[in-house]
Amino acid sequence: MTRLGDLPARLAVAGVGIPVVFGALFFGGWVFGIVVAAIAALGVWEFYGLMRHRGDHPFVLVGTAGTVGLVLLASTESTFSVFAPWALTLVLVVAALCLALSLVFRWPGGSPAGALGSTLSGVCYVGLPASILPLLRALGEGVPGVEGMGVWTPLAFVLFPVLVIWATDTAAYFVGMAIGRVRLAPSVSPKKSVEGAVAGVLGAVVSAALMSSWWLADLPHHAVPVTTAAWMGAVISVAGQVGDLVESVLKREAGVKDSSNLLPGHGGFLDRLDALLWALPVTWGLLAITGVLS
Question: pTM for the whole thing?
Answer without folding.
Answer: 0.90
